[in-house]
């Protein structure tokens, strides 16, 4: 009996090892060949990276000392956080479809100085007869079909809804800001992509031709017609696999004769907002990150109160909260970002605009509805970290 039991045990171990090896091989092949992870910089890009004063020879560095992980001993474990993200508590996410507006941009194109929030950090706007889009993400905020699914919407913006686009500006290469499937599908609609240093390689792998991509370092700028696009710093990090900070990250200033706009990308609060405001402000509107915050990554994402203060530092007349309302990327309830921003802005010299996803609006007529309050179930009280 012992001999038979040992034989069965050996057979089980052998097949377990085989299964593990197969899984490891599959993971290796996926990480190596899956297009979502992008490409490696060519010699021309690497030369420009090496010449950047923000590159230390191995990685890019923030302008101020920054910790990605600010976890305390009292913080929940990584496994606990992942479990809560995959299995959110009741009422943490919308209980019904988000109230959104249906896009009709082919029959009713954007006029100059009109904008439309497409969800998360994707905003389409027009100025100086130029159509510009920020961080186009139309699919999952994840490289794998686990997590990162968008909330259900009454009318979900689609790539087919998009018009011809003169410029796409990218803040950094995280999956919720750089969607490889969206880039591939948008390619034929887009005249040019403006990206941080190192990200050109990703777009090249996804089929975008070299002559349609311009890589930029902090405070470099280009001019389209009478509009300046300036790539400015943010306090964040980058990386699509296991290597961090091999590509640059940042924010954008758009200055046309009739519109002054700031797009924050992602990042923690820093003195650079005031410097950008002094150099390029005032801004008619600031598209400000407001969501996916947590005490465990407090230096690379802003809390809503900091987002509002950053808009004040920028000398912005209005703030459009972005980076919320589409994906579940943190432990806070989905309405916390906008409700905390509402409260924080009460005594600040800046106007909060709250358009629905898909709602076209102008700088002169800023929507201020509270669309997120109905028809959802009453929320539970929540004290954020």
Topology record:
Elements: H1 2-33, H2 43-51, H3 78-86, E1 114-119, E2 122-127, E3 130-134, E4 165-169, H4 180-186, E5 190-196, H5 200-205, E6 213-216, E7 221-224, E8 227-232, E9 251-255, E10 260-263, H6 272-280, E11 285-289, H7 304-313, E12 318-322, H8 336-344, E13 351-352, E14 360-362
Helix pairs in contact: 6-7, 7-8
Q: Which short descriptors sum up this protein?
A:
385 residues, alpha/beta
Quick structural overview:
The protein is built from eight helices and 14 strands. It is an alpha/beta fold and 385 residues long.
The main sheet comes to: 7 strands, mixed
Helix content: 10-25%
Radius of gyration: 22 Å
Q: What is the residue-mean pLDDT, rounded to a whole number?
A: 89
Number of extended strands: 14
Poorly predicted spans: 26-30, 376-385
Structure description:
It is a single chain. The strands form 2 sheets. Strands 6-5-4-3-2-1-14 form a 7-stranded mixed sheet, with no helix packed on it. The chain has a 7-stranded mixed sheet with strand order 7-8-9-10-11-12-13. The longest helix is centred in the N-terminal third of the chain and has 32 residues, at 2-33. The model is unreliable at 26-30 and 376-385 (pLDDT under 50). A hairpin with a 2-residue loop joins strand 2 (122-127) and strand 3 (130-134). The protein is of the alpha/beta class. The protein contains 8 helices and 14 strands.
């Amino acid at each position: 009996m012992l001999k038979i039991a040992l034989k069965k045990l050996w057979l089980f171990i052998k097949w377990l090892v085989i299964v593990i090896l197969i899984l490891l091989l599959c993971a290796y092949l996926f990480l190596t060949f899956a297009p979502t992870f992008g490409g490696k910089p060519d010699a021309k890009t690497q030369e420009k990276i090496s010449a950047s004063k923000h590159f230390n020879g191995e990685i890019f560095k923030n302008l101020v000392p920054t910790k990605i992980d600010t976890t305390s001993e009292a913080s929940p474990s990584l496994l606990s956080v992942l479990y809560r993200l995959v299995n959110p508590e009741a009422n943490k996410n919308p209980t019904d479809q988000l109230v959104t507006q249906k896009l009709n941009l082919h029959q009713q194109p954007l006029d100059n100085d009109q904008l439309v929030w497409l969800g998360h950090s994707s905003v389409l706007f027009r100025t100086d007869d130029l159509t510009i889009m920020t961080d186009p993400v139309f699919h999952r905020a994840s490289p794998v079909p686990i997590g990162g699914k968008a909330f259900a919407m009454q009318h979900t913006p689609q790539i087919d809804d998009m018009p011809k686009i003169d410029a796409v500006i990218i803040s950094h290469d995280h999956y919720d800001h750089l969607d490889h499937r969206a880039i591939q599908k948008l390619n034929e609609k887009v005249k040019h992509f403006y990206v941080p240093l190192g990200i050109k390689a990703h777009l090249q792998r996804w089929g975008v031709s070299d002559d349609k991509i311009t890589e930029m370092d902090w405070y470099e700028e280009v001019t389209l017609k009478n509009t300046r696009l300036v790539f400015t710093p943010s306090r964040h990090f980058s990386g699509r696999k296991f290597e961090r900070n091999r590509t640059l990250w940042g924010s954008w200033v758009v200055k046309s004769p009739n519109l002054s706009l700031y797009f924050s990308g992602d990042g923690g609060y820093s003195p650079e907002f005031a410097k950008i405001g002094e150099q390029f402000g005032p801004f008619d509107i600031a598209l400000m990150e407001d969501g996916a915050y947590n005490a465990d990554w407090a230096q690379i994402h802003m809390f809503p109160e900091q987002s509002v203060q950053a808009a004040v530092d920028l000398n912005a007349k209005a703030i459009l909260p972005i980076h919320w309302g589409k994906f579940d990327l943190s432990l806070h309830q989905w309405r916390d970002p906008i409700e905390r921003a509402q409260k924080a802005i009460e005594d600040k010299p800046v106007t909060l605009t709250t358009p629905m996803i898909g709602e076209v609006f102008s700088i002169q007529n800023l929507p201020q509805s509270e669309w997120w309050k109905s028809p959802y179930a009453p929320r539970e009280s929540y004290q954020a970290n």
